[in-house]
Design a protein that fits this description.
- Helices cover 35% and strands 25% of the residues.
- The strands form two sheets. The protein has an eight-stranded mixed β-sheet with strand order 3-2-1-4-5-6-7-10, covered by helices on one side. A two-stranded antiparallel ribbon has the order 8-9.
- With 212 residues, the chain is α/β, with parallel strands linked by helices.
- The chain binds 5-O-phosphono-beta-D-ribofuranosylamine.
């Protein structure tokens, strides 16, 4: 039984999709905990109502600058490791991570980013895609490395950008696919289907890694 810890900062709809898929499809895995850096994250209530352990490591309780960031990540790591996870899943976790933290979870931490990486790393991806006149946008699941929104790509979802789209309409279209793609990617990890070779993910069972 693989143990999964999910980190959130807010709504937690991707976390919810993963929790539901795990139960419906009976993966050989359990959600050991949902951890938030914000005490008011809406997703915490969903996790609690499904009998999942929750914890809060409030980033505001740590000092400013790099020392604060290091101290926060050290405490977060301590709390995560208390749940002995095989996989850490970042699901809308809005923190920049220190290199040491990412090395500690190398090849066992996934993130979902709402763009077709390597395009549009960072924030406001949908707005930037619209402003650039992109015809397609989407989301990417990738392994986490020290460089923000980089790391081996596990899966991508593609949606058309439609005339008249705004940030809200485009993000809603992308989110629908995120909710299909992220549970699939987590399941592949749990089933031992993902191998990283020369920085590229190879899926051993050869299922489709693209969603549209
Ligand atoms: C998603 O769009 C995800 O791609 C991004 O943050 C958002 C999180 O949404 N990283 P939710 O908290 O999972 O509902």
């Amino acid at each position: 039984m693989k143990r999964i810890v999910i980190l959130i900062s807010g709504r937690g709809s991707n976390m919810e999709a993963i929790v539901r898929a795990r139960a419906a499809e009976q993966w050989p895995a359990e959600i050991a905990a949902v951890i938030s850096n914000r005490p008011d994250a809406a997703g915490l209530a969903f996790a609690q109502s499904h009998g999942i352990a929750t914890a809060v490591v409030d980033h505001k309780a740590f000092g400013p600058g790099q020392p604060g960031r290091e101290a926060f990540d050290a405490e977060l790591q301590r709390v995560i490791d208390g749940f002995a996870p095989d996989l850490v899943v970042l699901a809308g976790f809005m923190r920049i991570l220190t290199p040491g933290f990412t090395v500690h979870y190398a090849e066992r931490m996934l993130n979902i980013h709402p763009s077709l990486l390597p395009a549009f790393t960072g924030l406001h991806t949908h707005k930037r895609a619209i402003e650039m006149g992109c015809k397609f946008s989407g989301a990417t699941v990738h392994f986490v490395t020290a460089e923000l929104d980089h790391g081996a790509i596990v899966a991508q979802a593609v949606v058309p950008v439609q005339p008249g789209d705004d940030e809200a309409s485009l993000s809603a279209r992308v989110l629908k696919l995120e909710h299909r793609m992220y549970p699939s990617a987590v399941r592949w990890f749990v089933e031992g289907q993902l191998a990283i070779e020369n920085g590229v993910v190879r899926q051993l069972a050869g299922e489709a890694q693209s969603f549209s």
